[in-house]
Amino acid sequence: MKALTWQSRGNITCETVSDPKIEDGRDAIIKVTACAICGSDLHLRNGLMPTMECGDVLGHETMGEVVDVGRDNSKLKIGDRIVVPFTIGCGDCRQCKWGNWSCCERTNPNGRKQAETFGYPLSGLFGFSHITGGFAGGQAEYMRVPYADVGPIIVPEGLDDEQVLFLSDIFPTGYQAAEYCDITPEAEKTIAVFGCGPVGLMAIKSCFLLGAKRVIAIDTVPERLALARSSGAETIDFANENIQNTLVRMTHGLGPDAVIEAVGMEAHGADTSVQKVSSAILSTVTTMERPFALNQAILACRPAGIVSMPGVYAGPVSPVMVGILMNKGLTLRTGQTNVQKYLRPLMDRIQKGEIDPSFIISHRSTNLEDGPDLYKKFNDKTDNCTKVVFKPHG
Ligand code: NAD
Ligand code: ZN
Ligand code: ZN
Q1: Which residue from 194, 271, 281, 359 has the highest number of Cβ atoms inside 10 Å of its Cβ?
Q2: Predicted confidence band at 288 (pLDDT cuts at 50, 70, 90)?
Q3: Number of domains within the chain
Q4: Of 262, 329, 327, whose CA–CA distance to 297 is shortest?
């Protein structure tokens, strides 16, 4: 089959690799009907995530049709259409039972190795380096789904792939990020969202679904800011305005009640020219993580507020403004998303017509050979690229 593979830093190729097979009785094999590129894939592409190996199959936003099922899997049958969460959960361990699916204690076969760095093992993730299990991803014609009797959700009749694909990751990710801000209609909260990529846009929509009064979104890419505005947010273009001064002015000195950092470790410096130049240099010559947006978010949040951080980081990052976080009494909430927890409620919201996440898609392809080019466009934010979806079987 064809699949998009990681070769080396900055080098993604479409290769012919062997078809996946059932390896465990709980597995399923899907024919991938739709898959997408995530901002996290860019961190892998750009060499910021350690333990990638040449030939690794990428992709963790995937759905498809079940074409084979293991003998112990009584949940799925051939022909079912399923969306696959990017976090692999066993369903039986303490963490899965608590709903902390991304901290599953059992699904990462390299968990012991991971514990050397993280203290404990975390869940396996599709197409996301060897420290998270080395599972082949779903930017491919077929994918093996381990623990397929637990994670995936069967798609109800009447919904097309584009409406439900993002349940695999970014819709639950944006929603969890918003939920972490303790939004209720009565609280009349103002939320600042840093980054108007797919995750930021899903976070904006989710803030409003939960009852936020105001959302102020920050980015500099015009088409992304436009999508943020059409989602109901007020926007700040960080190339033209000082983020902190503008946020303080817009909130009459009070500051946002919570901030969502939906940028992650490849942030661009936004405020001073030194930041702007150093982030531009760092992004081209090194694989160092850049916490510019995180620091901006910590600064922006009102005292005793919440910093919700879906943005992904890989290892130690410095300098992070821990002193400001501490002295302001901020609460930091973060993590890979507990996707399984949100599948049913968010599928219901899609079915009721409360949201159609497909509004962010800008590029579609039926040919995985287009992968390297579309990765570049999504990475460089050119050609108005806001989200890429492949339909590898047409
Ligand atoms: P993306 O790269 O498409 O979007 C990031 C956006 O941030 C871009 O539009 C960029 O212009 C903007 N940006 C850069 N520097 C900024 C700054 N200083 N201030 C404000 N905006 C800035 O990526 P995405 O797909 O939207 O993902 C965003 C982050 O979420 C990534 O780090 C990704 O790895 C992470 N993510 C986390 C989870 C999770 O489970 N926690 C899941 C999916 C994605
Ligand atoms: Zn992702
Ligand atoms: Zn588990």
Answers
A1: 194
A2: confident
A3: 2
A4: 262
